[in-house]
C-alpha cells in the first residue's frame, strides 16, 4: 500500500513513446494524476527488437507485468557474428548475465513490449493528435498550448517526445534567454549512421529452422566490402526482427528545424523505400542458407519498415523550472549497445520515485531541487552508457580497427568478459512505493539515491500515520457490553 495520501501533482507528459508510457504506468501505480499527449494521430507498431535484462526487469515485476513480458521474449544467450559469405567468425556469450544480474538477457519485439505497456494506461489519459506549440509555467502550475487550440494545465511537464523534442526546444529557448544554456546543448544532433528496421509477419518454422530454437537466434553480419551491417533476430512470434545499418563516410548532423521542414518523423516509413532497394542484395544467414535482406523486406509490411538516423548525444540541461526531460529527449544512444530503451525506463523510475512523494503545492523552486536530484542520479549513468554504446557501435563498423576490436571481443578472457558484464549489470533500479523485488544477482546492485531517499520519506510518513492511529485508538472511549 502506498502511504503517500496527500493530494499529488498533476503530471503532463508530452510523448507517448516507451519512456512516456512507462512513466505513465508508474504514475498510475502510484495514484498520481497524469495525462499523456502524442502529436501523431495513432501509434504505429514500428521498430525491431529490444534487449531486456536485469537493468529493467525488476521494474516489470513490481508493476505486475513481468510474466506477460517474459512470455513474449526469447532468451539472448549468444550473438553469432558472420562474414558476408555467411561463414561464422565469432561468438559473443551473454550467459553470465543471468548469474551476475539475476535475470537472463531477453529479446522482445519493440511493438509487442509497447503494446503491453500501453494497455496499462487508461484510455482517457492518453490524447492523440496533440502537437505542442508552447508552454507557460508559473509558480504553481504549467499550461500547455496545442496546435488544435486546446489548453491543458497541470503542476509539472515531462518531455518524453524523442530526439527532436519540442519540449526541449521550447525549454532551451527559455534557458538561453536567461543566459544559462551551455554551448554544447545548442548544437545539432550528430550522427554517423542511418538505419533501416522492420519486422516480418510470422513465418513457417519449417522454412526457417532458426525459429525452432528455444533461445533467440541472433545473427550479425559485419560488412567489409560494403558499408552495411545487418542484424537479424528470430523472435517469439516466429517473426524476423531485422535492421540494416549504413555506415556513413563522415559525421553529419541534423537540427530539429531541418527535421520538421522535411516532415520526417523519427520512426516514419517515408524515407525507407530507396534504402530497401539499395540493401536488398545483402547476404544474411538462416533459412535455406541463401537468404538476403531482400527476402525479409518482402515478408515485412511496407508501412512497418522505417529508416532513421542514429543520432548520438547526451545533453547537459535536463530541466528548467517545472519542466524536465526523459529518454531520447535528453540522451540519444546508438542502438548497438541496446541501452536506449533501458535508460528511458530508468529515467521514468527515478522521476516516478520523486513525484510520488510530492504534494501538488510545492513551488517551482522546490521542483528545481527535485529535478537536480534526478539529474545527479541519472546523468552520470547516461554518460557511462553513452560511452559503452559508442564502443559497441564501433564494433559494427567496416574498418580494420573495428575488425581488430571484434577479434578481441571474440577471444576475450573469461575474467575480463565477466568484468565487462559486471559494469553493464550493476544499475538495477526499483520503485520505492511498491514491494521491493529480491535481488538475486551475484553482483550487488549499485546504490540508487531516489530509492533510498524516497523510501525513507515513505517510511517516515507511514510511521507518523501509525502513531496518529494508535493515539486515536487510545483516546477512544471503551464501551462496556
Automatic annotation (TrEMBL):
GO terms for molecular function: FAD binding; monooxygenase activity. InterPro entries: FAD-bd (IPR002938), FAD/NAD-bd_sf (IPR036188), FAD_mOase_fung (IPR050562). Residues 10-180, 305-385 form the FAD-binding domain. It comes from the Eukaryota. Keywords: FAD, Flavoprotein, Oxidoreductase. Pfam families: FAD_binding_3 (PF01494). Belongs to the paxM FAD-dependent monooxygenase family. PANTHER family: FAD-BINDING DOMAIN-CONTAINING PROTEIN-RELATED, FAD-DEPENDENT MONOOXYGENASE ASQG-RELATED. This is FAD-binding domain-containing protein. It comes from Podila minutissima.
Amino acid at each position: 500500500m502506498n502511504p503517500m495520501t496527500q493530494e499529488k501533482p498533476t503530471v503532463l507528459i508530452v510523448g507517448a513513446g516507451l519512456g512516456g508510457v512507462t512513466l505513465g504506468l508508474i504514475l498510475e501505480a502510484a495514484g498520481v494524476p497524469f495525462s499523456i499527449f502524442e502529436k501523431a494521430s495513432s501509434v504505429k507498431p514500428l521498430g525491431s527488437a529490444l534487449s531486456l535484462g536485469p537493468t529493467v526487469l525488476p521494474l516489470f515485476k513490481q508493476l505486475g507485468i513481468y510474466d506477460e513480458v517474459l512470455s513474449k521474449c526469447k532468451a539472448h544467450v549468444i550473438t553469432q557474428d558472420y562474414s558476408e559469405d555467411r561463414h561464422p567468425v565469432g561468438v559473443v556469450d551473454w550467459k553470465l548475465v543471468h548469474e551476475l544480474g539475476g535475470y537472463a538477457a531477453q529479446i522482445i519485439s519493440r511493438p509487442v513490449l509497447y503494446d503491453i505497456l500501453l494497455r496499462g494506461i487508461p484510455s482517457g489519459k492518453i490524447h492523440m493528435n496533440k502537437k505542442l506549440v508552447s508552454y507557460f509555467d508559473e509558480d504553481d502550475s504549467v499550461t500547455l498550448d496545442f496546435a488544435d487550440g486546446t489548453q491543458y494545465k497541470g503542476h509539472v511537464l515531462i518531455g518524453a517526445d524523442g530526439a527532436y523534442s519540442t519540449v526541449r526546444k521550447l525549454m532551451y529557448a527559455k534557458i538561453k534567454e536567461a543566459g544559462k544554456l551551455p554551448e554544447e546543448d545548442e548544437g545539432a544532433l550528430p550522427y554517423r549512421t542511418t538505419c533501416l528496421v522492420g519486422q516480418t509477419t510470422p513465418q513457417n518454422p519449417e522454412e526457417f529452422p532458426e525459429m525452432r530454437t528455444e533461445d533467440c537466434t541472433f545473427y550479425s553480419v559485419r560488412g567489409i566490402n560494403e558499408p552495411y551491417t545487418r542484424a537479424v533476430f528470430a523472435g517469439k512470434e516466429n517473426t524476423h526482427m531485422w535492421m540494416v545499418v549504413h555506415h556513413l563516410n563522415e559525421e553529419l548532423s541534423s537540427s530539429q528545424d531541418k527535421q520538421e521542414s522535411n516532415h520526417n518523423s523519427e520512426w516514419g516509413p517515408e524515407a525507407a523505400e530507396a534504402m530497401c532497394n539499395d540493401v536488398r542484395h545483402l547476404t544474411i544467414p538462416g533459412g535455406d542458407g541463401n537468404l538476403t535482406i531482400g527476402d525479409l523486406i518482402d515478408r515485412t509490411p511496407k508501412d512497418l519498415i522505417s529508416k532513421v538516423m542514429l543520432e548520438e548525444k547526451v545533453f547537459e540541461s535536463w530541466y528548467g523550472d517545472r519542466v524536465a526531460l526523459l529518454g531520447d529527449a535528453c540522451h540519444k544512444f546508438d542502438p548497438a549497445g541496446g541501452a536506449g530503451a533501458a535508460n528511458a525506463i530508468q529515467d521514468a523510475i527515478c522521476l516516478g520515485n520523486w513525484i510520488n512523494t510530492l504534494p501538488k503545492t510545492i513551488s517551482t523552486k522546490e521542483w528545481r531541487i527535485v529535478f537536480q536530484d534526478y539529474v545527479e542520479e541519472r546523468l552520470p549513468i547516461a554518460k557511462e552508457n553513452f560511452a559503452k554504446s559508442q564502443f559497441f557501435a564501433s564494433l559494427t563498423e567496416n574498418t580494420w580497427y573495428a575488425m581488430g576490436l571484434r577479434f578481441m571481443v571474440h577471444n576475450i578472457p573469461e575474467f575480463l568478459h565477466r568484468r565487462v558484464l559486471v559494469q553493464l549489470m550493476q544499475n538495477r533500479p526499483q520503485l520505492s512505493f511498491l514491494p521491493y523485488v529480491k535481488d538475486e544477482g551475484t553482483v550487488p546492485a549499485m546504490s540508487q539515491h531516489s530509492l533510498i531517499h524516497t523510501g525513507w520519506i515513505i517510511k517516515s510518513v507511514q510511521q507518523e500515520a501509525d502513531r496518529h492511529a494508535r493515539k486515536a485508538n487510545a483516546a477512544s472511549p471503551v464501551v462496556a457490553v
